[in-house]
Amino acid sequence: MSNQSMWSKNISFVDGQLHLSNIGATELAKEFGTPTFFLDEEAFRARATAWSLALAAEFGTQAGGVFYAAKSFISTAVAHWIADIGIGIDVCTGGELAVAIAGGISPKKIELHGNNKSVAEIDKAVSVGVKTIVMDSLYEIDRVAAAARKYGTRQAVFIRLTPGIQAHTHESISTAHEDVKFGFSIASGAAWEAVEKIAQLPELELKGVHCHIGSQIFGTESFEIAADRLLQFMGRYRDSYKRELPELDLGGGYGIAYMPNEVTVEPADVIPTLGRAVREAAAKYSLEVPSISIEPGRNIVGPTMFTLYEVGTVKDVTIEDGSVRKYISVDGGMSENARTALYDAEYFACIASRNSSAPLVQSRIVGKHCETGDIIIRDIKFPADVAPGDLIATPATGAYGRSMASNYNHVPRPPVVAVIAGKARVIVRRETEDDLLALDIAKM
Ligand code: LLP
After folding, report:
1. Centroid of ligand 1 to alpha carbon of 115 (angstroms)
2. Domains of the chain by range and CATH?
3. Which pTM does this prediction carry?
4. How far apart, in whole angstroms, are the C-alpha atoms of residue 58 and residue 294?
5. Residue with the nearest Cα to atom 4 of ligand 1?
């Protein structure tokens, strides 16, 4: 049950009961209710630190840094940890920027992304002095220049490049083939147009290039090709402008284990290969090795959280082929795990409150929402004696779980509880019906 790649480091099973940092699931459910996201704080800190150390070991003075992708999960407490660990953060909206700042992250450690940043978001980012704004359209180049003029500063920018790579992951989370809304295509000449436009604007300082090829990627090949294409582009820049771009950001995307047969990518699996690819490409295009940054999100936070649910009903349904499928309904669903419905994502689950030696039967774990697609796990073999009141845990829900949660069916979003050294504390509280009603303007 406790495949360490799926369950975070401080999870253990004692007599069939899941424990996080020695607190049992039954106790956690009693104190915080269900559904709840439980976050292994020590694991989060360790994962973030490991990426940062690996980058520093590989690139030395040319290690630009880790910029944690806030979209995977952010709260002010997590922003404090990021500031404490000393890494940077990638934000892509005004909301994420606000949380980063509220959590005490220095603007000098913030990178702003987004394919359609509003003028207000750009204004805020320039006014607080973020480290870099990553350019994603020609319109935006003018908007950032205007903001820099307004505040009398020179804004450092990157250009987001589309290197034309088909990363092997779900279509909705693959981002560097040509037919996407992100970035400037290298092949079509759009990227060069962006370079020339930025060069004419004294308010902007082009510091480097960026790409993000997709998410939940295993293996290093796509990253190596991306590094080569981006350095080739940097070589072209040097030939034309007689100066080298000092920075290269290779984005995030490192995969994690959701299922028992998968293995989470660790920094040692990719960073040395990335180092080799960057050095080789730099030599090939006669460039100095630029300062290298990365933006892992899922890989840092994903493995550090699990969701705890309580079973409400169980129903045996005879399906088309005559077999029986057990429908196990829990007290959450597609509002706090949209990934199964959106991407056909696969998750694992187990009973977290007790042992069971019952036979495993064909089952489906579903939520409480009013639609058939409200599925958390489409197919799973589950103990036949699962019953109302049992607690069920789903590992690896830290990334894009709470951050993509909705209020569908007016279900309040679950809290996030951080656990460290045997102590649990709420870092995002549970939404209430009053929170939901607070948005409504009652018109008589
Ligand atoms: N940098 C940029 C510019 C990105 O767009 C992303 C993710 C990341 C970094 C972080 O990628 P990660 O290391 O987390 O793979 N909602 C989808 C994932 C969308 C990812 C969007 N961009 C999911 O639940 O799978």
Report:
1. 13
2. 4-40+303-438 (2.40.37.10), 113-296 (3.20.20.10)
3. 0.97
4. 13
5. 212
